[in-house]
Amino acid sequence: MSPVSEASVTPKVEITDEEIFAGHIGGKLSVETTAPLDSQRALSIAYTPGVAQVSRAIHADETLADRYTWTNRLVVVVSDGSAVLGLGDIGPRASLPVMEGKSALFKNFAGLNSIPLVLDTKDPDEIVETLVRLRPSFGAVNLEDISAPRCFEIERRVIEALDCPVMHDDQHGTAIVALAALRGAAKVQNREITALRVVISGAGAAGVACANILLAAGIADVTVLDSKGIVSSDREDLNEIKVDLASRTNPAGRSGGLVEALDGADVFLGVSAGTVPEEIIATMAPESIIFAMSNPDPEIHPDIARKYAAIVATGRSDFPNQINNVLAFPGVFKGALDAGARRITEGMKLAAAEAILSVVGDELSVDMIVPSPLDPRVAPAVAAAVAQAAKDEGVA
């Protein structure tokens, strides 16, 4: 394999605490009007008495709200603050800067209006009921930073309760971009993705979703580990989610931990806060692929991983091949809303992964298995692919 040159690594940007806090003063969002309010006539049109005519019309035909309000293009970013970034359970108020940032990304990358909605409860019943009662106010729900295993139940119940696109981005955004990156890595190596033996470290929200999308993509040999080792059918300490996962993964019936799982494996996909010793990485198959996606500290440092792996990716912006959810979620929601989709399906997620990879085109290389998160071509490509998949699957 060819070593990665020092010149190919993006230099780390040094940012001071002063700059960081200054960038968050007053929050990162504002509301801007789309109608002029600079005259008595304009005020009469935008507000009283003119607005009453629009309200009467919507009262007579509720579908008109899609045309005459922002509802059908508004994404709410919903969190209880229980699993924020690598910070853990910091609560709704402390999570708000993250949710504001997510809303800003929706606007910047997909042109979608978005507002953060942090809830002072961890009770699934209360979270679902809140969103059901607020349904007339929004067009889609981005669940964010909700701890596992509660996140699985909450997402399932919100999807069942609402007639609009719902996605827990920590699960599916991560999974979509990971699949796109793995397809890119396999293409660089002229390998069939379905023949790869994949090990996923982490059985939380992201790990379960990554396993699901890789299985849906046709990869048969997927092994998942949690903090106690390989998620296997012979374990008696598994929750309901992991029992189901064990029944669909680990086809060779491996047991033990990282040592047993990574021996001869083609792919390591890390979505946990753990670390992987160098000597264990060294036992992977030749020309291996390592996605050490934990932030800010990857499971194994990229410089060490490159001693043994042909392709290395992380979640960080200061190394090549950044696997970042912003490659997926803006376009996924835009495509779903463009199509009028009632839900986001597995097929729409697979289409999103293909679209992300398609943007790379002739630039595909060891150091470029996915496009840059700042590439303006990504969201439109993903949105178009997702909208088409929604129509093909009959959910539009």
Quick rundown:
The protein is α/β, with parallel strands linked by helices and 396 residues long.
Global shape:
globular
Q: Count the helices. How many? A: 16
Text of the CATH class of the largest domain: Alpha Beta
By CATH, the topology of the largest domain is: Rossmann fold
Main beta sheet: strand number and arrangement?
6 strands, mixed
Query: CATH homologous superfamily of the largest domain?
Result: NAD(P)-binding Rossmann-like Domain
Which regions contain 5 or more consecutive residues with pLDDT less than 50? 1-10
Order of helices and strands: HHHHEHEHEHEHEHEEHHEHEHEHHH
Tally of individual domains: 2
Order of adjacent strands in the largest pleated sheet: 7-6-5-8-9-10
Q: How much is the average pLDDT? A: 93
In whole angstroms, the N-to-C terminal distance is 45 Å
The whole-angstrom Rg is 22 Å
Beta-strand share of residues: 5-15%
User: How many β strands by DSSP?
Assistant: 10
Q: What is the CATH architecture descriptor of the largest domain?
A: 3-Layer(aba) Sandwich
Q: Return the structural class.
A: alpha/beta
What share of residues is helical? 40-55%
Task: Output the keywords.
2 domains, 4-stranded parallel β-sheet, Rossmann fold, 396 residues, 6-stranded mixed β-sheet, globular, disordered N terminus, alpha/beta, 16 helices, 42% helix
Question: Could you explain the architecture of this structure?
Answer:
- The protein has 396 residues and is α/β, with parallel strands linked by helices.
- It folds into two domains: 17-170, Rossmann fold (3-Layer(aba) Sandwich), CATH 3.40.50.10380; 171-396, NAD(P)-binding Rossmann-like Domain (Rossmann fold), CATH 3.40.50.720.
- 42% of the residues lie in helices and 12% in strands.
- The protein is built from 16 helices and ten strands.
- It has helices spanning 17-22, 40-46, 50-60, 65-68, 91-110, 124-134, 150-161, 169-188, 205-216, 240-248, 258-262, 278-281, 302-305, 329-339, 346-360, 378-392, and strands at 74-79, 113-118, 140-143, 166-168, 197-201, 221-226, 229-230, 267-270, 288-292, 309-314.
- The protein has a six-stranded mixed beta sheet with strand order 7-6-5-8-9-10.
- Helix 5 (91-110) crosses helix 14 (329-339), helix 6 (124-134) packs parallel to helix 7 (150-161) and helix 8 crosses helix 15.
- The longest helix is centred in the first third of the chain and has 20 residues, at 91-110.
